[in-house]
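Pinned message: reference record for PhoD-like phosphatase metallophosphatase domain-containing protein
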Amino acid sequence: MQIPMILSGPILRRVDNNQVTIWLATSELVSITAEVLTIQKSQKGLNYESFPVQSKTKTINLGKKLFVHLINIYPTKKNFPVEELLGYNLYLEKDAQMYDLDSFHLLTANHPDSLVYEGLDYPTFYISTKKESPVLYGSCRKAHGKGQDALPSADQVLQQHRFDLNLRPSSLFMLGDQIYADDIADPLVPYLQLIKNEIIGENEDLTLVEPKLQQYLHYLYKIQGRQEIIETLCNFTSSHAHNHLISFGEYAAMYLLSWSPVLWNLFHPNHDKEQLPERYDEQLEELHDFCRNTSKVRRVLANIPTYMIFDDHDITDDWNISSEWNKDVYGTSLGKHIICNGLTAFWAFQGWGNQPDTFHDDFIETMQQYVETYPIGSQPYQKWQDTLLSFDSWHFIAPTTPLTLCLDTRTLREYDSSPKKVKLLHLINETVKTPIIIGQKGWTLLDQLLKDSKWKKGDILRIASPTPLYGVDVIESFLKKQVYPFQYFGASVQYQLDFEAWKYNLTGFYSFLHFLSKHQLRKCIILSGDVHYASAVKANVSLNGEELSIYQVTSSPMKNISFDWLTGSMIKLIVRLNTLRRNEPIPKRFGKKDGAWTELENSNHDNTVTYWEEEISYQSLEHGSIVETQNNLGLLQDKKLALQNTLLINTEEQLHFDPFRES
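Predicted structure (tokens):
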């Protein structure tokens, strides 16, 4: 297998006027330096001038042919210029031989692997200090997901507006499920093993982790061979775990395939498809569509600062969904091992670049020691697991304008495990006990993060929450009131339908509003994904004497249509019919009754104390619906008197929500 030197990247990560961070994965150990160039237009064309910088590269060896580098670039004389187009190049040195990006045809115009846009000589970006600067956001991108991948549509936008910094997006937020570790296509199974063996080499001995795995070894590397292993030895709840990723090398291989065309060029599917041949062929067709666009995805990631946070599928479906799930899964050696492998891969491929200073040397050395030796059962192995499972700083602030607070909605949860009294004759009205998405410890950490940042109380803040604070009420209410109660008859609806919206647990929902009120966030923009539909919601909230304006925009999925043409149309119709009855926003009151959070009657005749009131309005798309279930990528621009939210459906189609008008 011919392994190229650059496996994935460069990916532009955290960027501000003091530092530029670039991520790169190579198959060989190389020394890396960087060059930054200012770009000015003149009558003769573009002038490129080298900007004085120094670069420091941190490298972690993840396998025999996998080195991940984080290149931190600093200005040596003055800060990087803002609102100005900048270019960059990387120089890789090995055995006294020097390569740059052009050595790999990455700067060659019209080459299929080129990272540059028409008329430019380098990948480019700019540092914005204007709140009007557009941003891209989205989530849920499964390689064999249904429909056309929406992420490559960003390539068209960047190409079209490459010189116009008023319209060119300045940041990309990837809000979870960048990979689907629990749902792997059948044709990829043998290829992932090939990549793992070639690039990672000797991997962990899983029978040392869980001796009972010995009886399943015949199935471990077979297509569709893992569902029983995952259910029996891990207590995972994914119903699509036939090919679930287990080893670190498998997670790493999936990331490399998600962001780069390099290894797809070597993909030759095994046509041994004795089971479900129709499923195999269908998945293979979706994979071909996916890999055809990875060159565009790679170019996007090289030309825009990108910030990433996990959701469940980056690790496993339903990750930390309930206290029962945690007890069942973390009580197994193999389940805990897989979660830690997923977190190690998330850190190396996603988390490290968000806010590099968060990860101190001891953290990095712990990760390095694990992937070098896989010391299962030893003290370093225990330290590796303890380090990952106790780590509480996956959240971060992206240095955008306005600042963007990116929430960890998976590992900072709290759970109410007190028993519930079930009244069968009134089952439909039972209070639902779902997770508190961020617990008190999490809000304390976020308070401190804001305090340590440049953000000032009362300023605009953008928040990235993988799970929307405000979903579409018609959908959430139906699931909560009509579907969730079936759990009391033994149905596992919580795992099958992901009952973990913010509003399903009003304790957590109130904590979010209280956080906004405490910091005087009178205008807050929330970017979200997760729910497999797109929407745009405005909530006017009154809480503790504060009037809050919350703009919730949601984009999901990038590539994983969950509702086919018929069900998608039905959902849109039902939502539209319900919202047509509401020409004006309907006010709602919330408080505590009999010690439990609940929605109160608007008449307030029982004198129950109101904790907050809200009015919700939904923005419509051109075709009249307030939701979109096609694959999409959000494009948000904060204009002078309006907030415009657009959905990129593919390279040829865009849908526009009615703008949010500011009073």
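Pinned by admin. Summary line: The first strand starts at residue 6 and ends at 16.
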